[in-house]
Each structure stands twice: as C-alpha cells, then as structure tokens.
C-alpha cells in the first residue's frame, strides 16, 4: 500500500508572497551594502509569507552582500548551561542527571537554540564557519568568515576575545530583521567595556580535544539585556545612526556595531550606575 502524504495546513496572509528578488530589493533599499559584513538577528515569521522560507531569505542576503561580503548569525546554544538557570527550570530532582548527561558542545553538530530558522539555515550552510564557544557561538558565510570566527575564548562570551569584537573592528553592521533592540547583541560588547563589569560563574558541557565530555565552570561578565529596549530607543534618538525600513512585512533597523557598542558603554555608565 503506498504511503499517505498528508496535507499541511497553511495560513496565507493578505499581503502577497515575498520572493528572493523582492527581499533583495528591500535589503538594497534599506542600505545593506555589497561587500560588507552583516550580523543579523531575525524572525522569519515577521517577513510574511516567504516563497522558500529561510532558504530564500539567506539566498537574498547573500545576493545583496555579494561574493566579497560576509553574513553572520548568533548560533547560540542557550540550553547548554546549568539547569538551575533555565527558564523555567526543570524539577530540581532532574538537575544531577542533566548535568551528568547533557551532550558536550560540538561545533559541527550542536544545533543553535531559540534564535530562529534563518540562523540554523546559515549555521548548516555549505562552507559555513562557526566559532567555538559552547554557549554563545557565532556562524558565518562568506569572504571573511574564517577570519572573523577564529577567536572566541570560552571565558569571553561577547567581549574583546570574541567574534563580536572582531565584527566591530571590521566595520560590520547589524540588521534587526523583524525583531527588537532586546535582540541586539552589539550592545553586550558595551557591557565588557565599562569599568569593572560585574562577573559571575557560568557552566556548561564541553568536549575535550580528545572527544571526552566534561562539565566546565568558568567566570565571565554578567550579560543583562533587560534594559536593551530603552537603550536602543536612546541610541536611535541620540545618534541618527539607525536606518529604519521594511523588508517584506518586517520592520527592520540597520546600524553599525562599533557605534552601537560605544554608545552602549557610555549609556551603561550613566544608567546602570555602580
């Protein structure tokens, strides 16, 4: 008996389909430049109905960036951490088993979590390069991918020894594609640059060079995005460096990472106090 193929129920929005070419046109109009380095934070759903989904979005971004451009995504692994810090945490009786059995981070195989379908499309793209951090890795495609992903110390999530600082030095821009300032990783670089930033202990599962799994604890700067919405609004108002527009049906913002990190550093000193 032949296998039965079940229909997938799809809800079509009133606005027409977004295509590779329509997304290219919108990205050009927004100001994404050929040959540049672009860090994206995305919501596929926000674009409307895209013919081809995440694959089409990545193809359009690469079309605009061209052969000398580089596309970067945050390929974070948010669940690779102590279960007591999960939101919500699992039952406390589970914690020892999770700590003992959570798979060690594998740069080639561990999927990113909670960062969307477009990120996973980039991470698994042929030739993509991923940084080696077990919790806050980045993945990149393009001319400068290997260079920009090459340094990512475990005790430096998003600071000077991470791809984020390399992106700032490379005059990269960040694109918020249908998401808000609360997703703007660029601001975290500013947290590392304030005097004596608060620090805490992190932990996760890693693989040794020999392939042995172990549980690792290390200290790093506290990452806190609770006020990024207010920070982003001030950055946009005060600097005039943010270009706003639409790509598909998504509200988008495009701005330089280095300027965003510098502004964030000063803003934290003024607004977060000691």
From TrEMBL:
What UniProt keywords are attached to this protein's entry? Acyltransferase, Antibiotic resistance, Transferase
One record GO biological process: response to antibiotic
User: InterPro entries of this UniProt entry?
Assistant: Amioglycoside_AcTrfase, Antibiotic_NAT-like
* Top-rank EC class of the record's enzyme: transferase
Q: Which SUPFAM superfamilies match?
A: TTHA0583/YokD-like
In its UniProt record, a GO molecular function of this protein is: aminoglycoside 3-N-acetyltransferase activity
Q: Its catalytic activity?
A: a 2-deoxystreptamine antibiotic + acetyl-CoA = an N(3)-acetyl-2-deoxystreptamine antibiotic + CoA + H(+)
Q: What does the record give as EC number?
A: 2.3.1.-
As for family, the record states: Belongs to the antibiotic N-acetyltransferase family.
Q: Which PANTHER family match?
A: AMINOGLYCOSIDE N3-ACETYLTRANSFERASE (PTHR11104), SPBETA PROPHAGE-DERIVED AMINOGLYCOSIDE N(3')-ACETYLTRANSFERASE-LIKE PROTEIN YOKD (PTHR11104:SF0)
What protein name applies here? Aminoglycoside N(3)-acetyltransferase
List the source organism. Answer: Actinoplanes nipponensis
């Amino acid at each position: 008996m032949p296998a039965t193929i079940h229909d997938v129920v799809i809800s079509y929005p009133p606005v027409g389909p977004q295509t590779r070419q329509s997304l290219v046109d919108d990205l050009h109009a927004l100001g994404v430049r050929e040959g540049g380095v672009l860090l994206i934070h995305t919501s596929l759903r926000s674009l409307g109905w895209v013919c081809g989904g995440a694959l089409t979005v990545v193809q359009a971004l690469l079309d605009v960036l061209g052969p000398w451009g580089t596309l970067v995504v945050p390929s974070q692994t948010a669940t690779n951490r102590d279960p007591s810090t999960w939101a919500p945490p699992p039952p406390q009786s589970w914690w020892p088993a999770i700590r003992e059995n959570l798979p060690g981070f594998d740069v080639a195989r561990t999927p990113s979590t909670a960062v969307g379908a477009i990120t996973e499309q980039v991470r698994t793209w042929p030739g993509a390069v991923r940084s080696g951090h077990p919790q806050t890795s980045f993945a990149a495609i393009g001319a400068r991918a290997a260079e920009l992903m090459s340094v990512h110390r475990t005790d430096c999530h998003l600071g000077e020894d991470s791809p984020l600082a390399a992106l700032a030095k490379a005059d990269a821009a960040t694109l918020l594609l249908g998401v808000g300032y609360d997703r703007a990783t660029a601001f975290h670089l500013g947290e590392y640059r304030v005097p004596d930033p608060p620090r805490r202990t992190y932990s996760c599962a890693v693989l040794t060079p020999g392939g042995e799994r172990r549980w690792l604890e290390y200290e790093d700067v506290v990452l806190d995005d609770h006020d990024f919405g207010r920070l982003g609004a001030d950055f946009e108002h005060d600097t005039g460096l943010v270009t706003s527009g639409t790509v598909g049906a998504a509200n988008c913002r495009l701005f330089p990472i280095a300027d965003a990190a510098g502004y964030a550093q000063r803003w934290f000193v003024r607004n977060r106090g000691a």
